[in-house]
Write the structure tokens for this entry.
Amino acid sequence: MVFPEGTFDRAPGLLPFHLGGFRVAAELGVPVLPMTIRGTRSILRAWQWLPQRGAVEITILEAVPPAGRDFGQVLALRDAVRRAMLGVLEEPDLETAVVLPPGAEA
């Protein structure tokens, strides 16, 4: 199991993905089985050590097979998995979003 964001944050949104897991999947020719997890931000908040009570929802999506082993196909696999996850998360894509500091105007 790989968590491609590599961390979690209190703010909603899907962070940019690291490529390691996608590279391994492409090189081995095995599909990626995307999963989303909701509810963990309320249970284990950033900078807290003790979890709170709450519900967690795990959604297993359709497997995404790699189309090849080269770097372009690794990126294509990453992007396909990201699109699938964003389709069910209903959260912003923080890879493309412009995040302004509090009090800044757009």
Summary: The mean pLDDT is 88. Helices lie at 20-28, 40-43, 71-89. The longest strand covers residues 35-38. The beta strands are 35-38, 57-60.
